Amino acid sequence: MNASEKKVVRLGSVRKTFGDLTALDGVSLEIREGEAVAVMGPSGSGKSTLLNMVAGLDRPASGKVEVDGEDISGMGEAALARFRRRRIGMVFQFFNLLDDLPALENVALAGRLVGVPARKARARALELLDELGIADRGDAYPAVLSGGERQRVGVARALMNRPALLLADEPTGALDSATGEQVIDLLLDLNRKGQTLLLVTHDERLAARCATRLIEFRDGGIVGETARERSEPWIAR
Ligand SMILES: Nc1ncnc2c1ncn2[C@@H]1O[C@H](COP(=O)(O)OP(=O)(O)OP(=O)(O)O)[C@@H](O)[C@H]1O
Ligand SMILES: [Mg+2]
């Protein structure tokens, strides 16, 4: 495992409630740089809520959220948005691409939003699309892309600003199994190159192939945890 001792995520007793409902019941979790952590558990157990906390998309009722060494639970809205754009990449089940922008511009926009000049952002976006095998689809609008292509664009966008942490909520959830497999390969490859991953998934194959640690979630809390060797041999690059 290529994990270092640096902590990319540190949650301390994070609680989150929605009215009477306790979605996160005092969750503590640390993720080291280079890990690929998969969170699995029943529907409604709080997995997406957990991811939203780490992404700074939602705030805890109590507890501490540290990402890439910064306490984000105390940040103001503007600082938090800036932090999220620069340091966190997010991949979604339904891609969340902008329909009226071509693939390349969807990716480049993530750079533009943190102040990267247009030409540089496009060059980086093209490089990413190329790495993900869809350079020839840069001018295509999301509507004409296949599900797998859309998710590749989603991953490219998430990687645009070289995030300390890549979050994914059911990244294969809307894909057929062959296409899902390609996205799994892609995430695995990224982690092997050192990208820290936090995945939420119902997809056993994704967890089995990608994760270096499995976390079982239930009723707003961690009920089990397994560090594991990945099933496949290390491929030297
Ligand atoms: N914005 C919200 N307002 C009220 N309740 C919410 C909100 N978001 C989530 N919840 C509730 O919090 C609980 C945890 O939801 P969450 O979306 O985190 O579950 P999940 O584990 O991601 O489920 P799934 O596997 O179905 O995606 C659920 O009972 C849900 O109804
Ligand atoms: Mg969810």
UniProtKB/TrEMBL annotation:
Organism for this UniProt entry: Actinomadura chokoriensis
Organismal lineage: Bacteria, Bacillati, Actinomycetota, Actinomycetes, Streptosporangiales
Single annotated GO MF: ATP binding
Top-level lineage group: Bacteria
One Pfam family of this chain: ABC_tran
Entry keyword annotation includes Nucleotide-binding: yes
Keyword flag Nucleotide-binding: yes
InterPro entries cross-referenced by the UniProt entry: AAA+_ATPase, ABC_transporter-like_ATP-bd, ABC_transporter-like_CS, ABC_transpr_LolD-like, MacB-like_ATP-bd, P-loop_NTPase
Domain ABC transporter: 9-235
Protein's name in the database: ABC transporter ATP-binding protein
Record's keyword terms, sorted: ATP-binding, Nucleotide-binding, Transport
